[in-house]
Amino acid sequence: MLISTNLELCEDLQSKAHVDEIINGSSVNCTTKYFHGQIPNFGYSTSTYWAKFSISNESKNSLFFLEYAFPSMQNVELFEYDGDHFKSRLLGKNFPFFDRPLFSHNFIFPLNILSKTKKTFIMRTKTLGAVQIPLFVHTPESLIKKAQIESIS
User: Fold this and answer.
1) DSSP state of 30
2) Alpha-carbon distance 112 to 16, whole Å?
3) Contact, 78 vs 121, CB < 8 A?
4) Quick one: pLDDT at residue 96?
5) Contact call for residues 64 and 55 (beta carbons, < 8 A)
6) For residue 129, what are the CA distances in angstroms to 11, 32, 107, 123?
7) Mean pLDDT (whole number) for 23-32
8) Please, are residues 109 and 123 in contact by the beta-carbon 8 Å criterion?
9) How far apart are CA 50 and CA 71, in angstroms?
């Protein structure tokens, strides 16, 4: 499921914002925009982009996968907010492929979202080139099906 059509985005021109400022909406270093529509595409940029979003789990399953489907990004950092602090995971083309939690050309983050709950995430992206933010949430089954389709096409 495509989720990048409904994001709170922040362009950080000087890469000075901190994740606490993003979650609270208090950053003076960012220009906040609400994005509704297609996949965000900022063209060539040296800015850091922050995306804030929540995922609701209405199913009985708790395992999901967040896919950042733009493999040319140099740094993609996901912050998982639990109400008290953040857990951070960093992927990107500047990091070893075999350090990824799932071996894919895209960046895939396993997520644990308890049934009937909602979790907030912050993503920080930085690259020297084109910037897009195509985010998809998958169940284990839908991720396997996607991988199978990609392998034969």
Assistant:
1) E
2) 29
3) yes
4) 87
5) yes
6) 15, 21, 17, 18
7) 71
8) no
9) 17
CB neighbours of 79 closer than 8 A, spacing ≥ 6?
Answer: 19, 86, 87, 88, 121, 122, 123, 124
Written in H, E and C, the secondary structure of 57-99 is ECCCCCEEEEEECCCCCCEEEEEEECCCCEEEEEECCCCCHHH
Could you tell me which residue, 86 or 79, shows the higher pLDDT? 79
What tokens were used for 25? 């909406």
- The 10 Å Cβ neighbour count of residue 5 is 14
Distance CA 19, CA 141 (A): 32
How far apart CA 5 and CA 40 sit, in angstroms, is 8
What is the pLDDT at residue 71? 87
Dig out the tokens for 49 from the structure.
């982009």
pLDDT digits (tens, 9 = 90+) for 1-16: 667 566 888 888 888 8
Would you say 5 and 40 are in contact if contact means Cβ atoms under 8 Å apart? no
User: Is the CB of residue 44 less than 8 Å from the CB of residue 24?
Assistant: no
If you average pLDDT over residues 53-67, what whole number do you get? 92
